Amino acid sequence: MAMAVAHHMESSSGSGSSISKHLDAGKYVRYTAEQVEALERVYAECPKPSSLRRQQLIRECPILSNIEPKQIKVWFQNRRCREKQRKEASRLQTVNRKLNAMNKLLMEENDRLQKQVSQLVCENGYMRQQLHTVNASATDASCDSVVTTPQHSLRDANNPAGLLSIAEETLAEFLSKATGTAVDWVQMPGMKPGPDSVGIFAISQNCSGVAARACGLVSLEPTKIAEILKDRPSWLRECRNLEVFTMFPAGNGGTIELVYTQTFAPTTLAPARDFWTLRYTTTLENGSLVVCERSLSGSGAGPSAAAAAQFVRAEMLPSGYLIRPCDGGGSIIHIVDHLNLEAWSVPEVLRPLYESSKIIAQKMTIAALRFIRQVAQETSGEVVYGLGRQPAVLRTFSQRLSRGFNDAINGFNDDGWSIMNCDGTEDVIIAINSSKSLSSTSNPANALSFLGGVLCAKASMLLQNVPPAVLVRFLREHRSEWADFNVDAYCAASLKAGTYAYPGMRPTRFTGSQIIMPLGHTIENEELLEVIRLEGHSSALEDAFLSGDIHLLQICSGIDENAVGACSELVFAPIDEMFPDDAPLLPSGFHIIPLESKSSDTQDSLTTNRTLDLTSSLEVGPATNHAAGDAPCQNTRSVLTIAFQFPFDSNLQDNVATMARQYVRSVISSVQRVAMAISPSGLSPAVGPKLSPGSPEALTLAHWICQSYSFHLGAELLKSESLDGDSVLKNLWQHQDAILCCSMKSLPVFIFANQAGLDMLETTLVALQDITLDKIFDESGRKALCSDFANLMEQQGFAYLPAGICMSTMGRHVSYEQAVAWKVFAADESTVHCLAFSFVNWSFV
């Protein structure tokens, strides 16, 4: 009996020991500080180690030898879970802070709107009362919310006391606009407020001048925001120069500055604007920081009368920035821009550019808030850029490209620009800057100067019913449709050591492919910075193994079709493959600004879907009064400005000018063709060249060319199966030989060419009609043509021309094995319609 009891006790003891051991294996393990430190080091390198890595960790770290691999696995799982919870909590706190700040803004906006409604109700009641009085007809109780800016005499601005009085009035008026009801604000179309939006945006309605307002949350301190916004050239692309003439402290701890500001003109057909303003910086009792500004009366202010001669003095009504610190960090900022841009001084067709609050909102107000938020995100490390470049460096590249392009468009005299042989009738303006060099402010060693200087060919045109965003996207993605690779190569050669050649001296064949390599973008992708690589191969045997690739630094903006009033821009400059941070830039490109349609603006001369040169509709002075019965114009319009810059040597100035003018005209023709193609309503039959591929006239001429060739030479120009119906034009267009037709005038001009002919002359169908027959042949070619002209016109009706050399519109030499010329008869086979030429086996020399 005792033995049985003892045996039972031993069995119970053994069973309890195994249970205890099992519980020890699964219970919570309390790690020492040394063990946690070792695990944290591994977690920093690899948050999710494999089974082999965990076993290796136990072997290499003696302090972890008493811990099971399964328990280490659980520790890493818990650590990842805690990290995820921490990040989520941090994100929720950020979102909550943003929502609280946005809620505060919306409540303030709601209070302002309620005040505005009450004010309108009172004004409405007052008007009703006045209508019932005897003197109602003499009383003007307008309900428009108009801000009246008192004109201050120069006497008031000549002493600090007078300036302080003006500053206090400016502050009061600015605050009434930023948070009050002094302006009738309406929500900016397409810019709805929300937790993910940049801010709340509004534009003026029934207000003198043009005005825009924005408010939003920014994760920067008020002093930093004020410092950035006061440096207007750093973020406002249209700001050319800002100079503080006088600065003195105000009695309340603030500062008063007298500021002279110059802005660029958006197009070649309008003068630039400048401002003479008082800027007042102060702190309110609630801790808010205010920077407000307004124009001072008088037009004589500025660095010199000569410098201001190219500008029209515009007026800045009380505007500025109200910056309030937030409890959880960051700031709430209110921005107001209120301007009178003196629209009377520009052609009537351009006045919407200066009368649109939407354009001011996009160019100034929204741009300022976006820039502040961009800097805030870069400071916090949220923005990642490519190619190892610092955000500030890439931002500087964008600013330099935009500024260089605006400099070329405006061509200010004090920068050294002068117009070259312009009689006022040219569609393309040629400007010369003999003193300009591709310089870098930080490293003069990288500066490139030329014996001649820089030449700019520029033009402006009106686009009708063409979405700017769609056009810019097309120009960006299909560069080969409008650009000439050899012109790009010529500009790129200026960046390389040694002399560069005139286009055509070192021919390069463009493969047609371009590679877009993104560098960076703004927070809402409204602007892209990228490097474009154009793949090319040299046509010369001795250069066959050299890379013919060209690299361009490019900014593209305004490609969002839903952005109301946004300007679209594509600006690029050739760069070296390994361009330094201070690489010299020579920008060229396109700038498109939308024009708002007005019910009173009918413009009978502008038909639907038409693209015009703006010089055909220029009129400066009072607006034209249209008849009341005119129908409102429903078509959208925009202004396209093109500017291309070319370096040149002094002995090649005229050649480069001719090339530049022809090239820009060619680009304009290509843009017109693209614009017509992407127009929502399609191509108007009255638009474009009469002999564009696919038109009935081109099809008829194609039949006449083939029939006349067969009649004169007894052979078929095309295969017999290609002579049916519409296929004649298609096969003639794709023929390998260059086929061209010229008119039967005293000075023959070309009226048609197939694709090979356009490639040989390096032109377009539109520009083709400006080329005369004598310009494409050299001296020997002209002699051969004259010697066989009798056979061509009178006897045989055709002539074989020997091998020779002709010239493209870009100045490149083209060789051909043989040329055939024949008369093209019309349908009656008795009337000579034109002369046709076929250049066999042509190639660039």
UniProtKB/TrEMBL annotation:
Residues 156-384 form the START domain. Residues 22-86 form the Homeobox domain. One of its GO terms (cellular component) is nucleus. It is found in: Nucleus. Residues 24-87 bind DNA. Its main location: nucleus. Keywords: Coiled coil, Differentiation, DNA-binding, Homeobox, Nucleus, Transcription, Transcription regulation. The keyword Nucleotide-binding does not apply. GO terms for biological process: cell differentiation. It comes from the Eukaryota. Belongs to the HD-ZIP homeobox family. Class III subfamily. This is Homeobox-leucine zipper protein REVOLUTA-like isoform X1. It comes from Durio zibethinus.
